[in-house]
Every structure is written in C-alpha cells, then in structure tokens.
C-alpha cells in the first residue's frame, strides 16, 4: 500500500536531490534469476518474487534499491515545491484509473502517487523489447499535490481550485488548467459526468454557496462564457456560430467580440449548459465520434461585486478561467529548441505558445509572449503577475503511455518553477 513508501529516501548523488530519484530497476526476461546486477546505476538484487511483482510498482522493490553513494533526504522537507519561488502557481498531478481496454491488452501500471505529493514513475519494459532494458530507470517527482487513481472529484476540487474561487470573490483573476495527453482524464477532471461532476461544475456550486454566505455584504452577480480555441479560431460553445474576433478592451482586457455571457443562478442549470457546450466542441474529421484532441475549451466565470460604503460605491470583478486543454501528445516540448522545431510543423499553435509563455515565466523573463496565439491572448490577464494558477497534469497509469506520462510530468515539473514576480506582459 502507499503508506509503505519510504519517507526517507536514499539518493545517489546530490544532483538527484533536486527532483529526481532513480528508483526502479527491475529485471526482465532472461535476467529473472540473475542476481545481483546493476541497472541505471543502482545495485538491485533480483528474486523470483520480484519477477512476479514487476507487473506493478512494488514498495518492497523500491525499498530494496541500494544507491551507490548514500545521501539521505526527506523529500517533504528538502524538496518543497516552489522553493524560493512564488506560490502563485500550484501544480498537481492526477492519475486516472486504468481502463478496461488497457487491462484487456495487458497494460501494467507504471506510475504511483504517494504521501499526497509524490509521484513515482517507472518504466516497465516489454519482455521482447531488449533495447529498452538498457534505459530502464525510475523517476521521482514532488508536486503541490499528487492524486492517486481513487481520488474523487470533490477532493481534486477542494485541493486545487477552492482557494482560487475565494480569490475570484476578492476580485482577483485566477486560472485552472488541465494538461495532458488525449485520454489522460482532462475532460473528466474539468467537466466530469452528470453523475460525477468535475472542477468546472463543483467550482460554480461552491461559488454559489459562498455567495449565499456573503449575501449581506453587497451585490454579487455571476456571468459565464464557454468558448473553444480550435486551429486558432475562437468559437462560442454556448451559442455556436461564426468565428469570434479577439480585441483589446481598455477596461476588460482581451475580449472575444460577440461572445455570449450567461447570467448563472444555479450549478445544476450550469451542468446541463456545459454538457451542451461540450457537444459543440469541434471534432476532427478522422475521429468523428470523439471531441477533438486539438481543441481547448475555456470556461470563464466573472464574479462582479458592488456595495455602497458610506457615500461611495465599491465595485470589483474577478475572473476565473477553467481550461480543458487540447491533448499534449503532439505538442510536448519542454525546451525552446524543441518548441521552435515543432512550431514549423502544423500542430497546435496555442498549446505551444502556452508552453513558451510558461517557459518565459519560469525563466523570469520580462517579456512574456502572450500574443503568439489565441489561447495565450485570452489568458493574458490570468497567468503570471498577481494571478493565481492551478495546473492539473493528467496522466494514465498504463506503461503503454509511458512516454506521454513522462513528458507530461517533465512539463509539470518545469511549470512549478514559475516566478510571478516582476513579470511584464506585452
Ligand atoms: P481527455 O479529456 O484527457 O482526452 P477523458 O477525460 O475523456 O480524457 O478521459 C478518458 C476516459 O477515461 C473517459 O472515458 C473518462 O470517463 C475516463 N476517466 C478519466 N479520468 C477518470 C477518473 N478519474 N475516474 C474514472 N474515469 C476516468
Ligand atoms: Mg477531452
């Protein structure tokens, strides 16, 4: 069980202490009974039992790893996320349950969440795949939160988004993203199902509950818009029609001209509205039954507050943007060089631009290239600066998605380093 994961972890080198712990080095194929041997720098004593247990990441296997040079680190103390940085961006990882289809094709679990914040990733090489044997390695990450497979929607909402709803009530702008490959659980996390509503619906539900408590303080009104960015075209998901043009408004910032804003009164009515909106998301010609893996859906919730204090009128508006991003599988790039080479290919410009903005924010650059895409233009007032952001990286537990999971985790690991102080937006 998860609790059995070692609290104190022995690391091989000081470098590893920053974010990476090589953990798993399991024998495969012919090597089942040879022991001990060294893989990935670790001496690992194999046994018949470990052969059996390689079907999943086993705590006993992790505990058995012997690093060459000992250095003890308590990850919860030494590796706190955002150390030295602002806590305005929080990064969470959610592992979805393994699917029936994955089980049927013999997929095994290659990732595990532990102690609320830790993610362990281990490559389970296929027996026939000899070359991958050489690259067998494990990784260890710490985030602001790590949600295991059995985490429910309410828990994800409370941990990642509730505090942002509070911020919006105070007139601040905040944003929540779901990032990850297609099928990793982004839409489930954001929208959810009628039976099991996700962050978008739970945030609105909670917002109405909080407003009820504050009803004596002044007037509040809630408006919402639901839009899509697909192929650099912005469309209204609640009132589908022609493409919308983005323009800069002195007071409101970047706005999509003609976008409908709904006055919302209850969360139930909103769920039906959003489900309807999701039906309007663009589908790719080759995958007619699926909502597109290349479209970004953005729910904007505006909370306007006004009250009379003495003789003057106090008013403020906060905006919460909840974003179900396009699948990251074709646009994963963690460094500028890869970003540029990918930009030449006709892949998702908005997702790449978002990665560039995050890179620029991570590096503490003065100029953040928000203008490079429709998505980043729309997020200009909700990312960086004094805005609070929650990033939920969604991953599949299956070893068949290992590459995508690894890329998503690297991306998320980098995102948590964002410094929001001193950024100048263009
Ligand atoms: P994405 O939007 O990232 O492409 P989806 O949210 O559509 O992925 O998830 C893919 C499938 O997995 C869907 O059938 C969804 O219902 C299911 N799923 C995803 N996350 C969970 C979860 N946490 N619990 C149960 N089912 C999930
Ligand atoms: Mg989706």
UniProtKB/TrEMBL annotation:
Query: Which organism encodes this protein?
Result: Marsilea vestita
Residue positions binding ATP: 180-187
| Name of the molecule in the record | Kinesin-like protein
- Give the UniProt family note: Belongs to the TRAFAC class myosin-kinesin ATPase superfamily. Kinesin family. KIN-8 subfamily.
Q: Name one GO cellular component term.
A: microtubule
Example GO molecular function term? microtubule binding
Query: Does the keyword rRNA-binding feature in the UniProt annotation?
Result: no
Q: Which residues form the Kinesin motor domain?
A: 88-418
UniProt KW keywords:
ATP-binding, Chloroplast, Coiled coil, Microtubule, Motor protein, Nucleotide-binding, Plastid
What stretch of the complete protein does the chain hold?
98 to 523 of 702
A GO BP entry is: microtubule-based movement
């Amino acid at each position: 069980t998860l609790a059995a994961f070692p609290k104190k972890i022995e690391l091989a080198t000081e470098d590893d202490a920053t974010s990476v712990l090589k953990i798993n080095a399991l024998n495969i194929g012919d090597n089942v009974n040879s022991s001990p041997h060294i893989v990935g720098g670790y001496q690992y004593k194999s046994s018949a039992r470990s052969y059996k247990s390689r079907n999943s990441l086993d705590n006993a296997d992790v505990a058995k790893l012997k690093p060459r040079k000992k250095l003890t680190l308590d990850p919860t103390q030494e590796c706190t996320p955002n150390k030295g940085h602002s806590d305005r961006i929080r990064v969470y990882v959610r592992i979805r349950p393994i699917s029936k289809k994955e089980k049927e094709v013999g997929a095994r679990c290659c990732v595990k969440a532990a102690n609320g914040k830790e993610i362990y990733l281990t490559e389970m090489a296929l027996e026939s795949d000899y070359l991958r044997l050489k690259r067998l390695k494990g990784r260890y990450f710490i985030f602001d939160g790590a949600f295991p497979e059995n985490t429910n929607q309410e828990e994800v909402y409370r941990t990642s988004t509730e505090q942002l709803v509070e911020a919006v009530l105070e007139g601040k702008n905040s944003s929540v993203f779901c990032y990850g490959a297609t099928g990793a659980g982004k839409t489930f996390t954001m929208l959810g199902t009628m039976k099991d509503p996700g962050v978008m619906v739970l945030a609105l539900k909670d917002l109405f509950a909080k407003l009820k408590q504050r009803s004596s303080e002044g007037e509040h009104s809630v408006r919402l818009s639901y839009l899509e960015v697909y192929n650099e075209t912005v469309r209204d998901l609640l009132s589908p029609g022609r493409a919308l043009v983005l323009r800069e408004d002195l007071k409101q910032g970047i706005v999509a001209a003609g976008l409908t804003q709904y006055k919302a009164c209850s969360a139930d009515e909103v769920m039906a509205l959003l489900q309807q909106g999701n039906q309007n998301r663009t589908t790719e010609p080759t995958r007619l039954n699926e909502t597109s893996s290349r479209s970004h859906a953005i729910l904007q919730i505006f909370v306007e507050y006004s009250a009379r204090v003495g003789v003057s009128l106090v008013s403020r508006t906060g905006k919460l943007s909840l974003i179900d991003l396009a699948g990251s599988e074709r646009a994963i790039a963690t460094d500028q060089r890869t970003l540029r080479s990918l930009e030449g290919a006709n892949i998702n410009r908005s997702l790449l631009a978002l990665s560039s903005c995050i890179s620029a924010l991570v590096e503490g650059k003065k100029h953040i290239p928000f203008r490079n895409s429709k998505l980043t233009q729309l997020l200009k007032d909700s990312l960086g600066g004094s805005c609070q952001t929650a990033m939920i990286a969604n991953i599949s537990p299956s070893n068949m998605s290992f590459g995508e999971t690894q890329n998503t985790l690297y991306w998320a690991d980098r995102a948590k380093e964002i410094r929001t102080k001193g950024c100048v937006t263009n």
